[in-house]
Amino acid sequence: MHCEERPYACKYCEKTFTRSGSLRCHERIHTGEKPYACKQCGKAFTTPTSLRCHEKIHTGEKPYECKQCGKSFTLYRYLQRHERIHSGKKPHECKQCGKAFYAHSILRYHERIHSGEKPYDCKHCGKAFTHSNYLRCHERIHSKEKPYVCKQCGKAFTTHNSLHHHERTHMGEKPYVCVASMQGINHSGVSEFILIGFSTFPHLQMVFFLLFLLMYLFTLLGNLFIMATIWSERSLHTPMYLFLCALSISEIFYTFAIIPRMLADLLSTLHSIAFLACASQMFFSFTFGFTHSFLLTVMGYDRYVAICHPLRYNVLMSPRGCTCLVAWSWVGGSFMGTVVTTAIFNLTFCGPNEIHHFACHVPPLLKLACGENVLVVARGVGLVCITALLGCFLLILLSYAFIVAAILKIPSAEGRHKAFSTCASHLTVVIVHYGFASVIYLKPKGPKSLEGDTLMGITYTVLTPFLSPIIFSLRNKELKNAMKKAFLSKLYPEII
After folding, report:
1. Could you give the number of structural domains in the chain?
2. Ranges for the G-protein coupled receptors family 1 profile domain (predicted)?
């Protein structure tokens, strides 16, 4: 034991053990064999120790009591772990991020976050888990098994933790106190989250910091330069460039909601984010993200009116009408941000607080939530987001269907080229925006890794806003000439 000799290896996953008995118990996880059955409820277990622990739930026996707080436990090792809370001892430390734990088993599960290893797969839906307990709790959703029953009200639960939290409502016990409070939002005992999106790239964090800092500065300066050019050039005071200016503002705010925090985490060893800060980040990122989508839809409508109904353009796209379209885009984005944030942060977060992302994103937060309505909220939020994005995309697609039909009716090749060139920059940004969005929201179910989720999140969060000003600057001839003129007038005022 002292020299860590492990002569017994599992033939299924090659995990090694010090004793043959431990190996046999482990192999039953792979074979599904459960020879030890509870006489009272019939539930079966792979080891006699697990059976004895389970039987204590029926008998209420807890022979091991903590001397400091009087709390009792069914197993001596549970008491040992609990006593470390009082002493503050965390002897097991993660080599990759330095985080310390009370028990070696918890350290092993934590290390799987860095390695992306999820050896326990659900037979029903294929979802993978780092811990066999998480798999068992998840499988009860499919089987609808609720073995833990409250003695006072008879309500049944899928996990012992859920029962334990429920019993506190009868006792009036509230052991978790939040530092901050948000009206109408359920803190659930979690006062902060840990962002571990970049923990799998410990040696590349400085490289990522420099790269993302340069891309963020370029995005910020590029959008500001576009706005300044439109503001200073009178020939660009048209609805098309008013919408482009609003789009630049939404991109600046969207990147400001996520990237500065991400850059700070890349330099820091502490990646915690307060509950309120996490909710705020989600609200603003969804607000400005959906505002961006709505503005792209409005810009598609503007191009449709300009090409298909040029004689009625000034009537249909009046200054008042354009202002209303921009205002409704911002209102729609704010509504989406409010709906998604309220739905997610009204869930109960009980225990785990490590977000497998570099920002407060919906899917990793849903994995931390517990309760019977998590699945309903997940489906509802997903349906709302996909419906909004798909609706915007279909409206843009419809606009361009009419635009292409109108362009094909133009007799001269030069006229067709000129008409299409006014749409090229907008169409390119739409393809980039919805291409990366589809990767995030429509990715197929299957084995997931922290590295893959992080890299896909970067494409939509950092790369899309970075490419947008480049595309508009290079593909829009009128804007490009105005930017050249504005740039040269600052360098050589005597020439202009």
Report:
1. 1
2. 222-472
CA proximity to 229, closest of 471, 474, 486, 465: 486
Range of the domain at 434: 202-491
Query: What are residue 343's DSSP bridge partners?
Result: none
pTM of the predicted structure, to 2 decimals: 0.61
Alpha helices in 75-204 (DSSP H): 76-87, 104-115, 132-143, 160-171
Residue 185 lies in a domain: no
Q: Which amino acid is at 358?
A: F
Token pair of 458, please? 């970067």
Residue 218: inside a domain, yes or no?
yes
In 124-204, alpha helices (H): 132-143, 160-171
Strand-strand pairing, 92-93 and 44-45: unpaired
Position 306 in a domain: yes
Residue 468 has which token pair?
């947008």
- Give whole-number Cα distances, 272 to 223, 264, 351, 353, in Å: 30, 11, 15, 9
We report the CATH number of the domain holding residue 446 as 1.20.1070.10
In this structure, what token pair is assigned to residue 459?
A: 């494409």
Phi, psi of 312 (to 5 degrees): -100, 10
Q: What is the pLDDT along the chain (496 residues), one digit of tens a residue?
A: 455 577 788 888 778 888 888 888 888 888 878 888 888 887 888 888 778 877 877 787 777 788 887 777 777 777 777 777 777 677 777 777 767 776 777 777 777 777 767 777 778 777 777 777 777 777 777 777 778 787 777 777 777 677 776 776 666 665 544 433 344 444 455 778 888 888 777 788 889 899 999 999 999 999 998 888 888 888 888 888 899 999 999 999 999 999 999 999 888 877 888 989 999 999 999 999 999 999 999 999 999 998 888 888 888 888 899 999 999 999 999 999 999 999 999 988 876 788 888 889 888 888 888 877 888 999 999 999 989 999 999 999 999 999 999 988 888 888 888 878 778 888 888 988 888 877 766 665 555 566 667 777 888 889 889 998 888 877 777 777 777 776 666 655 554 4
Strand order across the beta sheet in which 354-355 lies:
272-274, 192-195, 354-355
By the 8 A CB rule, do 359 and 195 touch? Answer: yes
As a whole number of angstroms, the distance between CA 448 and CA 452 comes to 7
In a domain? residue 167: no
